[in-house]
Amino acid sequence: FCPLFSILDKTELKRSRVPGVMVTQYVEELPPGSTTPDFIRKPIALTIQEGKLAYFKAVVSGYPVPDVSWARNKGDISNSTKYVSRFDEKNEEYILEIPNVDSDQADTYKCFAINPFGKAVCTAALNVIEGREFMKVAKRKEKQWKEGEIDPRFWEVLLSAPKKDYERICQEFGVTDFRWMLRKLNQKKKEREAEQSKKIHSLKQIEVKTDGTAEFELDMKLKDLNSKILLFKDGEMLDYGDGTNEATKHNMQKFGETYLFSIRDVSPEDAGIYQVDVEEVNMFSTSLVLPDVEFNTTLKDTKVIEGRDAVFECALSDPVPQITWCANDISVEHGKKYNITVSEDKHVHKLAVKNCTEEDKGVYTAIAGLRSSQGTLNVEGKFASGKDDEKFTYSMPVSKTLDFQASPKFIVPLKRHAAPPGYECYMSCAVTGNPTPHITWYHNNVSLNTNPNYYITNVCGVCSLLILRVGPKDMGEYKVVAESPLGYDECSTKLIVKGMSSILILINLFWLKF
C-alpha cells in the first residue's frame, strides 16, 4: 500500500478559472513548460426534444495536450450509433454528439481531460422532453438560467462590450432571456466596480488598432504602484515586454496613467479571450475575433463635391456580422458623421461619409479578419475658380444650360406606425433625385430588399413597404436609404405591435436600444 499512499500524498486539487471544473495535479512540481489540463470552455447543460440531435462541446488546455474522453453516470457510451465523439480541428472543440436522442439517454454526462501531470473533470446534464411538453419546459427554462450553465467567457466579454453589441454577444452564446441577462449584468458590474475601486481610480474602454497590430488601452490610476499587472489569453498567463524589443509578441507600455497592451503581427492563432488583471482582480476582458474571409469586391476610390455624401462598399466571401472601418488609420463608428450598414446576408458592407468636407479627405479602410481593402476619398470645393473669376462671372451676363441633376432628398418622410398582430401594415415615403436614386429598406439596420416576407415597391419616387401579417419580430426601427452618385439621404420610423406581452415588449425595446 505504500506506493499507493505515496501517489495520493502528491496529488493536489487546483483552482480552475472556469466555475464547475475540478482540476487534480498528480505531481508536486510541474516540469518547465508543462501544465495540468483545464477547461477553457466547458459543456453546458442541455434540454432538448426527443428525436433531435443533442451535442456537448468542450475546449481544453494543457501541455502535453490532454486526452479527452466522455462518460455518463448511468450507463456507457460505447455504442457508436448512439454516441459519436469527435474533434473539430478548426474550432479546437471536442464534441460528443447524440443523434435521435431518446428519454433513456437523459443523464449527467462527464468530460475528462487527462495528461501525465493531471486531470480535469466537469459535468453537464442532458434533459430529454417528450412531445408537446417540450415547448412548455423550454419557455420555463428561459427564465431559469443558472450561472454555471453559461459559458464563463460570456460575462467576461459582455462586461467590457458596448451596449450596441449586447444582442450579437447573446446570440453567439445562446442566451435568450434578455431581462435575466440585464439583471445579472448590472449585478456583476456593481461587483466588479467594487473590486476595481480597491485597485484603480478610473477605467476606459479599449480601442483596437488595425495596422497589423491589436492594442488594448486602459487608463488606470493604481492606488498601489507595486500592484502586479497580469495579461491572460484564454485563461493562460502571457509574458510581455515593454515595447522596446521588436521581437516580443506581447508588450505593455505605460504613458502616465495609460497602459497600452499590444499584440504584434496578429495571426489567426491570436484569436481568443484576452483579460487584464491587477493582482487577482479582473480589470478588462474582451474577445479578439479573426474571421477567415476574402474580399470579393474591394473598395473603390471616390470623388464628391463638398457638402455631399460619399459611399464606400465591399463584398465578402463569407457572412460577417460586423467589420472594422477606418478613416486615415483611425477607427470610425456609426453615428452623425458615418452611417454603417450591412446587407441581410451579412456579405455586403457599406460606409457612408455624410456632408463631406476637406477634413474628410484621405484613405478609408475596411478590415475583415486579417484582410483589408482601401479606397481614397477626394473632396472637391464648391467653387473651382478663384476670386477674380468669380467677380468676372458676376459682372458679365453668361448663358447657362439647365442642369436638372440633384442629390436624393426625402420630401415626404415615413410616419410612425402601430399595428395589432396579424394585421397588415403599409409604410410609404417620397423621394426626389436625378439620377434616380437606389432605394434600400432596413429593419434594425438589416437590409430587407431581398427578404420575401416584405412586399417592396418604388414607383415614380414613391417608396412603399407592405407587411402582410404583423408579428412581434416586425417591431423595431424601419429606415429607407436613397443613394446616387450625387449623394445620400435617409428617413426612418418605428413600428409598434399592439397587444404584445410585457416580456416581448421588453425584449424588442432592448433590441432597439442596443
TrEMBL record:
Entry GO CC: M band
Taxonomic lineage of the native organism: Eukaryota, Metazoa, Chordata, Craniata, Vertebrata
Lineage top rank: taxon: Eukaryota
Keyword Heme found: no
Membrane-spanning parts: none
Protein name per UniProt: Immunoglobulin like and fibronectin type III domain containing 1, tandem duplicate 2
Domain Ig-like positions: 37-127, 291-378, 408-498
Biological process according to GO: sarcomere organization
Keywords: Immunoglobulin domain, Repeat
Database matches in PROSITE patterns: IG_LIKE
Gene3D superfamilies assigned to the protein according to its UniProt record, in alphabetical order: Immunoglobulins (2.60.40.10)
